[in-house]
Specification:
Number of helices of chain B: 3
Shape of chain B: globular
Strand order of the largest sheet of chain B: 1-10-3-8-6-5
Largest sheet of chain B: 6 strands, antiparallel
Largest interface: A-B, 61 and 55 residues
Helix content of chain A: 10-25%
Order of helices and strands of chain B: EEEEHEEHHEEEE
Mean pLDDT of chain B: 95
Mean pLDDT of chain A: 96
Shape of chain A: globular
Distance between the termini of chain B: 15 Å
Distance between the termini of chain A: 36 Å
Strand content of chain A: 25-35%
Helix content of chain B: 10-25%
Oligomer: heterodimer
Radius of gyration of chain A: 19 Å
Number of strands of chain B: 10
Structural class of chain B: alpha+beta
Number of domains of chain A: 1
Radius of gyration of chain B: 16 Å
Strand order of the largest sheet of chain A: 1-12-3-10-6-5
Low-confidence stretches of chain B: none
Structural class of chain A: alpha+beta
Chain lengths: 269, 210
């Protein structure tokens, strides 16, 4: 139980090496964001396309390798997302592990979103924005009441409704990631909204690394000062991609990602 | 501040290194968590005692507060937007709620597969929650008392050496009856426990003892 001085020193050394690799080496190898007119989807790769009006949500099944493109058509939307492994919904998105494992709260192209089981849920294979939130979460009845003086449609109730329709309930709703939500921290740890980082047509491509059910909620982020009436629709495009190869960008981005992919592959070995 | 007043204690327990603990904290009662030897992370979850589907929510707590760290005055918010408890005393000054708990599975990703077979907070949470009819499904992103995880403006997110000294404490006063669950963190692969887990003490006081 009690650690020897030698063990303590060895563990500290390894931790410092991992930290240096994770925060100094890994970011240098990450790609530039995708161009707004980049990464076109071949028409015959499209499986399904739908538009989600502001305030609403969509539930989608993604098989391993299938990819969800989310487009912020107007530059005025944010999309909160949760997901579960289809065969065992107790395995689900884990924002804390996503941030901790990658040594960064700033996810972007080349990064992964982890499940609570040390496996990769989704890979960010394309991303024009790089401005996403894993810390603050989506809107709730309380957040809309506080901001607008009245409860509006909100992400928490969308997740509840969507979960209920697939046999899940409030116990199954984990903390969410919100795309196109430029939240940063100042030196005192206060959250800041950087609205100037949002552009019409920003998109992410999320490749499913296991069979998933995801819910995407198109509600303004709670830190977005714009009123809900200003929000616009978002487009969801489910399309076919190959399963991550050995030299895949997201798989090779860091030693941690490589291990998480290897553990995920075992589900399908 | 190094000798906390426990004269009105209705309950005291020393939690050994690496062990879980749970108890119902009644509305108005205060739980003092004492970092007996310093630099020891204490992972914690709260559930509404009457309906455990209402539980602590890290994202609601941070949104309501508008900032990323837990300290004196922080209100701990449930997934239904209600105040479950608040931080009413704090001699440490830095606690986390963004980094989650350690698990065998995430340890294997972070530190290599050999670390998969080391005890972890999620094992503690699963075993302790099972006493209350709850499962892994009920484990949400938790509080990490005495754990120092600065997030810098670039997004860099790092578990660094704890700043809590021996006998530092934090008081959590309940706004409703809550099931309070603790894992005295077993992690030896990062600085959250000074790479060497140590015991903690919990003390419960009634409202009139404050």
């Amino acid at each position: 139980m009690s650690q020897t001085q030698q063990e303590i020193e060895a563990n500290r050394r390894r931790y410092e090496e991992l930290r240096a690799a994770g925060q100094e080496l890994t970011p240098k190898g990450l790609p530039e964001p995708t161009a707004l007119d980049g990464a076109p989807i071949s028409p015959d790769a499209v499986i399904h396309r739908e538009r989600v009006p502001p305030g609403w949500y969509a539930t989608m099944r993604l098989r391993r390798g299938e990819t969800l493109r989310i487009v912020d058509d107007t530059g005025r939307s944010s999309v909160s997302l949760v997901g579960w492994r289809e065969e065992d919904t107790s395995e689900r998105i884990n924002c804390a592990d996503t941030v901790k494992v990658q040594w960064s709260a700033a996810v972007g192209k080349g990064r992964i979103i982890l499940s609570d089981m040390g496996r990769v849920l989704l890979s960010l294979i394309e991303d024009t924005s790089g401005a996403h939130d894993l810390l603050v979460g989506g809107s709730t009845p309380a957040s809309t009441l506080a901001a607008f003086g009245a409860t509006t449609r909100n992400t928490q109730e969308n997740f509840l409704a969507a979960a209920s329709k697939i046999g899940l309930d409030v116990r199954d709703i984990p903390p969410c990631v919100t795309f196109f939500a430029p939240v940063s921290l100042d030196d005192a740890g206060r959250f800041q909204w950087q609205g100037e980082r949002k552009r019409p047509g920003d998109f992410v491509d999320l490749r499913a690394e296991m069979n998933l059910i995801i819910v995407a909620s198109n509600c303004p982020h709670p830190l977005d000062p714009a009123r809900p009436a200003a929000a616009g629709p978002v487009t969801l495009i489910k399309h076919r991609m190959a399963v991550a190869a050995a030299d895949d960008l997201c798989r090779t981005a860091s030693p941690e990602a490589t291990r998480a992919f290897a553990f995920t592959d075992r589900l399908f070995a | 501040m190094s000798k906390p007043d426990t004269s009105h204690a209705v309950y005291t327990c020393d939690i050994p290194p690496e062990r879980p603990w749970s108890r119902i904290l009644r509305k108005g009662q205060t739980l003092r968590i004492i970092d007996s030897e310093g630099q020891q992370a204490v992972d914690a979850l709260l559930y509404c005692a009457d309906d455990p589907s209402e539980r602590y929510s890290s994202q609601d707590t941070l949104r309501v507060q508008g900032s990323a760290y837990i300290d004196l005055g922080t209100r701990l918010i449930s997934n239904r937007g209600r105040v479950m408890a608040r931080i009413t005393a704090d001699t440490c000054g830095r606690h986390d709620t963004s980094a989650g708990c350690c698990s065998c599975e995430s340890n294997a990703v972070r530190f290599g597969e050999a670390t998969k077979f080391q005890h972890a907070c999620r094992e503690n949470f699963i075993l302790e929650l099972s006493k209350h009819g709850l499962t892994k499904r009920d484990i949400v992103s938790n509080l990490n008392f005495f754990m120092n995880v600065p997030i810098d403006p670039s997004g860099n997110f790092t578990v660094v050496d704890g700043i809590s000294a021996p006998s530092n404490y934090v008081d959590v006063t309940a706004d409703m009856d809550v099931l309070f669950v603790i894992s005295n963190c077993p992690q030896v692969n990062n600085p959250c426990n000074g790479f060497n887990p140590t015991p903690i003490r919990v003390v419960i006081r009634d409202a009139q003892g404050l």
